[in-house]
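Table S4 entry, HNH endonuclease 5 domain-containing protein.
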Amino acid sequence: MARNANKKILLQENRFCIYCGVDEPSTTWDHMPNKGMFPKDRPSGLEFPSCEKCNQGSKWFEDIASFIGSVQWSSVEGHITDHFEAKLGHLVRNHPDALEEMQPSISQSRRARKITDHDGNHAGALNLTGPIVSEAMLLYGAKLGLALHWETTGEVLPPSGKVGVIWFSNENAILDEVPQHLFELLPQGKQLRQGTKVSKYPFEYQSAKANDAVTTAHWATFSGAFMYYLFVSESMDFSVLPEENIHRPGCLRSPKPHSTRVGWSIGPVTLPLRND
């Protein structure tokens, strides 16, 4: 009861949804990163006032990002494996089109097999380039950018503001393809904490605010499975980024794209015999 009362007070103090650009009143408290990203132990913190449309509209891409976040190169704890199986089952039931998109090409599989761990095990691959998965990862980054901007400044990004999203897969990290010079601009990384409790899922983030107080920069990594550079501003020039990497407040209500992949099947397959 006390927890619900605290949430009600917080919503009264923060009257507008941080994801809409001062457009909708806040009616619910949203976790970002979402609870589904964590196997068991998401501590409190990074909770944000949201409207119902943004909270519910982001569920589809949170499901996909949570699955990708559960894919570990090596599992050091059993619950990580359980988490992957749970996220995979959820994707099969609710987003089979996204899972279909993730089937790797021959070249992607070959490239992955060149990567081995210390025991000589070869890597597998997921195709993250399809329209559903690509949009999901960009929107997840945009939501995180809006949330961390509000945490850093205490201000809602207005409708004229933009979020620039750059994301990297664990393949980019393994092959040292993640630019390191941006780390120098950001302070020491932070983790979710609740008293002495720290999440065993290693989500880590960093934030910095520019002198103009309307521009923020952020870096975040999700257990090494994927990572983001995020730039949020009312005035920053985003022309160096592709248009699809730039999002505005209200983008969380974007519907899931349609897949362009042709259907696939796995064998063995038994075909019915015709009796002529």
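Helices lie at 2-13, 52-57, 59-69, 78-94, 96-101, 106-113, 131-153, 170-174.
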